[in-house]
């Protein structure tokens, strides 16, 4: 049997959206128009990334605090272990708690210099699992962590990486959000392995709708994510043709999420890149409408 008609699933899924903190006034406006466009879809939470090496600490904090203050959205702050002592990280977490933020996406983080090895701060948290345990000592945060359908590049084996995911959940995280991937099967196989390893917490697919192929490929390669040949062929030659690229990006992401949804996946996390249009359309394809979103 084929897939149900687009947008026709009876129970709309839960969505969450990821933004990055803006660097300039113009980007700030772009971010807030993106947030306002996606807000009526009533996501279960929205998260704000933390730049490599903690480089966006103030901007992440300001964006998350404004989300808490000026919107009805549930904000989640990404927080990493890089370049900071445990005390400093705990202080940042306490500031979040004090301004009403209850959800943290806890990550080890990557060093500021890409490709260098991760060097923990001498008094810092050494891993995301340690960070989760530390945050739970600060306050009773809801904590999400990262998972890697294609295995984290530094892991000694896929099983070791899965053991690490389990440690993060055992330390108090309640949800895993995956690294991006391009083949739905990659995620579904990973989900099977999680279940076989006794992981019962939700493992939420991280979806990145692609409209600009070359940067997406570079980004995927920099985090050890396979970029399939078919995608390269599909987008090849459309560099100067934004309309076609957007249509292709929408179709690829729509097929990906529809296949996942048909296999029982009912939560999706979108890497929005602060651009709302593809995400908005794909949400509708998943059956989420602004007036009747799951809440
Ligand atoms: P960890 O879970 O600590 O794992 C790191 C590596 O160490 C893995 O290979 C793991 O298997 C291994 N490992 C950990 N503990 C052990 C152990 N005891 N024994 C053996 N091996 C071990 N980065 C940012 O800088 N800012 C962000 O905002 C950000 N947001 C992200 C959001 C999502 C949804 C995802 C998927 C990633 C994000 N990242 C972000 C990237 C992330 O910081 C990197 O992928 C980083 O390299 C690993 O972080 P982690 O939390 O998965 O680390």
UniProtKB/TrEMBL annotation:
Catalysed reaction, written as an equation: (6S)-5-methyl-5,6,7,8-tetrahydrofolate + NAD(+) = (6R)-5,10-methylene-5,6,7,8-tetrahydrofolate + NADH + H(+)
Record carries keyword Signal: no
E.C. numbers: 1.5.1.54
GO MF term list: methylenetetrahydrofolate reductase [NAD(P)H] activity
Involved pathway(s): One-carbon metabolism; tetrahydrofolate interconversion; Amino-acid biosynthesis; L-methionine biosynthesis via de novo pathway
Keywords: Amino-acid biosynthesis, FAD, Flavoprotein, Methionine biosynthesis, NAD, Oxidoreductase
The keyword Oxidoreductase is annotated on this UniProt entry: yes
Protein's UniProt name: Methylenetetrahydrofolate reductase
Cofactor: FAD
């Amino acid at each position: 049997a084929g897939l149900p008609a687009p947008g026709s699933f009876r129970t709309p899924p839960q969505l969450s959206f990821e933004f990055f903190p803006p660097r300039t006034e113009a980007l700030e406006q772009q971010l807030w128009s993106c947030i306002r466009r996606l807000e009526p879809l009533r996501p279960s939470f929205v998260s704000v990334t933390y730049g490599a090496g903690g480089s966006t600490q103030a901007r992440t904090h300001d964006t998350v605090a404004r989300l808490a203050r000026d919107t009805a959205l549930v904000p989640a702050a990404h927080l990493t272990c890089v370049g900071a002592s445990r005390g400093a990280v705990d202080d940042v977490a306490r500031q979040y708690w004090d301004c009403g933020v209850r959800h943290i996406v806890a990550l080890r983080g990557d060093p500021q210099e890409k490709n260098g090895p991760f060097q923990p701060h001498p008094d810092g948290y050494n891993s995301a699992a340690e960070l989760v345990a530390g945050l739970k000592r600060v306050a009773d945060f809801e904590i999400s962590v990262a998972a890697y359908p294609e295995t984290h590049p530094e892991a000694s084996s896929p099983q070791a990486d899965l053991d690490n995911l389990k440690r993060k959940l055992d330390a108090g995280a309640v949800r895993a959000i995956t690294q991006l991937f391009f083949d739905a099967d990659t995620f579904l196989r990973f989900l099977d392995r999680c279940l076989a390893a006794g992981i019962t917490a939700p493992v939420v697919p991280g979806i990145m709708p692609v409209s600009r192929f070359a940067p997406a490929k570079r980004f995927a390669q920099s985090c050890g994510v396979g970029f399939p040949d078919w995608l390269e062929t599909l987008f090849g030659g459309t560099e100067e043709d934004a309309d076609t690229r957007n249509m292709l990006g929408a179709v690829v992401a729509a097929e990906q999420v529809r296949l996942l949804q048909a296999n029982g996946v009912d939560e999706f996390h979108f890497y929005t890149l602060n651009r709302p249009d593809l995400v908005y359309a794909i949400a509708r394809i998943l059956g989420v409408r602004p007036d009747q979103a799951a809440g």
